[in-house]
């Protein structure tokens, strides 16, 4: 039983890493396109938002019955989308338009 629990824990860790990586990629793209200036604090803040958004995307993907590869892809894409994906999930799940 311990092996299944450790595999599940590692899966969530991988999902979180991919989501945060997506956030870092988004931030680097914004810096390259001169939409943002480089700041370690801002990069970390983007990664925190992206990590949260990626976990939400992972939960929605699991509930939808997607394969592990699609779950990870969705998590990474949502991580790169950051707050845009979070707004989408908010409106989709609650039915309330985000402010």
UniProtKB/TrEMBL annotation:
List where the protein spans the membrane. 6-29, 41-62, 68-90
Q: Which UniProt keywords apply?
A: Membrane, Transmembrane, Transmembrane helix
Q: Does the keyword Manganese apply?
A: no
State the Pfam families in the record.
Phage_holin_3_3 (PF16083)
**Recorded coiled-coil stretches:** none
Highest taxon, organism lineage = Bacteria
Q: Which InterPro entries match?
A: LydA_holin
Q: What's the name of the protein? A: Phage holin family protein
Q: Which organism is it from?
A: Klebsiella oxytoca
């Amino acid at each position: 039983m311990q092996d299944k629990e450790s595999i599940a824990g590692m899966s969530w860790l991988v999902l979180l890493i991919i989501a945060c990586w997506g956030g870092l990629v988004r931030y680097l793209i914004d810096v390259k396109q001169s939409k943002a200036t480089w700041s370690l604090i801002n990069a970390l803040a983007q990664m925190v938002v992206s990590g949260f958004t990626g976990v939400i995307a992972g939960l929605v993907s699991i509930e939808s019955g997607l394969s592990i590869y699609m779950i990870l892809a969705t998590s990474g894409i949502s991580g790169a989308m950051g707050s845009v994906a979070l707004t989408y999930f908010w409106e989709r799940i609650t039915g309330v338009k985000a402010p």
